[in-house]
Amino acid sequence: MSDLFKASFEIILPPAQEPIHNSEAPIGIFDSGIGGLTVAKAVHELLPNENLIYFGDTAHLPYGDKSTAAIQSYAIKICNFLLSRRCKVILIACNSAAAAAFDLVKTYVGSKAHVFSVIEPTVALVTQRFAGKNVGLIGTKQTVSSAVYEHQIEQERANIHLKALATPLLVPMIEEGFITNRVSHEVIENYLSRPELTDIQALILGCTHYPLIKKEIVAYYQQQVEVIDSSEAVAHSLKVALEHTQLLNKASTPASMQFYVSDYTEGFEKATQIFFGEALHLEKFPLWD
Ligand code: DGL
Questions:
Q1: Which of 37, 175, 196, 276 is the most buried (most CB within 10 A)?
Q2: Which residues contact 55 (CB under 8 A, 6 or more apart)?
Q3: pTM of the shown model
Q4: 171 lines ligand 1 (CB under 6 A)
Q5: Under CATH, which number does the domain 3-117+233-284 receive?
Q6: For the chain, what percent of residues have pLDDT higher than 70?
């Protein structure tokens, strides 16, 4: 950690707060933008009783090309916001943010909330099901260059050979709505046929946006490779963790969902339909003004 970053990190530490043991408290989910809505959607579908607060850092989108220090500073500021809303859980829905800032966020949040990310549940699933096999990973430059998946998989000693490839064109492609046309077909085929991904038995979709092109990826492999959607894995492991800590919301009142972004354009709001399956109202919460 650079001295400059250390200094700003110390200054923004929030006042001590009691840990949240209230099952009705919200689950805070954050992402670099609206792509993390794929994770929020999976969580909402599996845990419809849970109150959700979503924060998309659209002012700094995309995280995939940012430095680790920059992403860490954004993540801490977003955590302060979610802690101020008394979230019982902070879920880092963004692979790039989890790769850059998970350990820091966990230390920073301490006992004030439970911290989860999209990476650990995916690693757990892969090591249980693909021991001794070759597993591919596609993600942003930040996620792939951090080698976080390699390190965590190695720790499990499951004899998995991880073959990773950064696929930076996929995020802008999906955001432009190129999902099932000639352009997306060409780009997907070009990436998946690279030597880095040969001879794999499973492929991790290591980015919030990729579940939207899962069908095309599955079709490319013609059932020969299992395609792992981390949004589903993370929702399941969150459910298990909430049960285990007795934090599952059993209230009969309808769950509330609030969606905040750090910068607002109509385009973001329109795109929520793609990522969440329904149009959502985004509220601007300018953390950086
Ligand atoms: N949310 C990011 C991730 O999962 C993708 C978009 C970005 O680069 O910010 O890695």
A1: 37
A2: 28, 29, 30, 31, 78, 81, 82, 260, 261, 262, 285
A3: 0.91
A4: yes
A5: 3.40.50.1860
A6: 93
